[in-house]
């Protein structure tokens, strides 16, 4: 049985599927990843420092100069991988747990999505907590300010910041209750998010990623290929 046929069989027989997704699912939508040879961190050695909480507080304008140029892609569209996952939600109990902040899973039609690291589409005033869409950030010349003069912060989890406790609880619950966990487009190098897959006790662990991960040895099926190509080939 070839790997695509095996994947199709696993999905057909599954009842509760969790897709655990990372930057690799969005690269084919034109959004660069972080850790590949052509990723954001490779292109800018200071990138990890810039997207930290302390840098945001101390150098807010420089943070936003980088953030608006390198991390917001308002014209990006879901690719076949996002669309296939959303399509599967119409037939199965599917939860998407994503490390991505681009909102493409929801744009594709997925409704049960846990965004572990937040979303660039949501932004809030640190003073009065009013929420703003991404256009407020894009249209601001330098640092975006609220009507109350407070500084607006993206609703994303920066380095040095903790994940939302409700998102952690839901992610662990969904993974624990799934019979199939499909890891898509992530190197599993970011913690604590990557540690959540240890709660999986179901029937089938699948890894679809261009490069190897630490989960490969324990997986029932490993496919090192393009996510869009693999998922688009499914029925």
Structure notes:
The chain is α/β, with parallel strands linked by helices and 235 residues long. It has a domain at 1-31 and 76-117 and 162-235: Rossmann fold. Helices cover 32% and strands 18% of the residues. The protein has helices at 3-13, 40-43, 47-50, 53-58, 60-70, 80-88, 104-108, 134-139, 165-177, 227-232; strands at residues 16-21, 93-98, 113-115, 118-125, 131-132, 152-156, 180-184, 204-208, 221-223. The strands form 2 sheets. The protein has a 6-stranded parallel beta sheet, sandwiched between helices. A 3-stranded antiparallel beta sheet has the order 5-4-6. It is elongated and about 60 Å long. The mean pLDDT is 95.
Concise account of the structure shown:
This protein has 235 residues and is α/β, with parallel strands linked by helices. It has helices at residues 3-13, 40-43, 47-50, 53-58, 60-70, 80-88, 104-108, 134-139, 165-177, 227-232; strands at residues 16-21, 93-98, 113-115, 118-125, 131-132, 152-156, 180-184, 204-208, 221-223. The protein has a domain at 1-31 and 76-117 and 162-235: Rossmann fold.
The structural class is alpha/beta
Shape: elongated
Helices and strands, in order, run as HEHHHHHEHEEEHEHEEEH
CATH superfamily of the domain at 1-31 and 76-117 and 162-235: TPP-binding domain
N-to-C span: 16 Å
Remind me, CATH topology of the domain at 1-31 and 76-117 and 162-235?
A: Rossmann fold
**Residues in helices, as a percent range:** 25-40%
What is the CATH architecture annotation of the domain at 1-31 and 76-117 and 162-235?
Answer: 3-Layer(aba) Sandwich
Q: Strand order, biggest sheet?
A: 3-2-1-7-8-9
Task: Tell me how many strands there are.
Answer: 9
- Strand content range: 15-25%
Radius of gyration: 18 Å
């Amino acid at each position: 049985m070839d790997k695509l046929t095996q994947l199709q069989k696993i999905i057909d027989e599954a009842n509760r599927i969790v897709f655990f997704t990372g930057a690799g699912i969005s690269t084919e939508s034109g959004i660069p990843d972080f850790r590949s040879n052509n990723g954001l961190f490779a292109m800018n050695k200071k990138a990890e420092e810039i997207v930290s909480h302390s840098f945001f507080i101390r150098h807010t304008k420089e943070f936003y100069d980088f953030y608006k140029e390198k991390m917001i892609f308002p014209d990006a569209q879901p690719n076949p991988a996002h669309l296939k996952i959303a399509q599967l939600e119409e037939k199965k109990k599917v939860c998407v747990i994503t490390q991505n902040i681009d909102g493409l899973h929801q744009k594709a039609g997925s409704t049960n999505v846990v965004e572990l690291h937040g979303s660039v589409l949501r932004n809030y005033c640190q003073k009065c907590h009013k929420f703003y869409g991404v256009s407020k950030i894009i249209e601001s010349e330098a640092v975006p300010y609220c009507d109350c003069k407070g500084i607006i912060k993206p609703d994303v989890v920066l380095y040095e910041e903790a994940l939302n406790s409700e998102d952690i609880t839901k992610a662990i619950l969904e993974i624990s209750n799934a019979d199939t966990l499909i890891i898509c487009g992530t190197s599993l190098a970011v913690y604590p998010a990557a540690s959540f897959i240890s709660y999986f006790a179901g029937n089938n662990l699948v890894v679809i990623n261009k490069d190897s991960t630490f989960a490969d040895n324990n997986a029932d099926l490993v496919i090192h290929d393009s996510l869009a190509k693999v998922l688009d080939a499914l029925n």
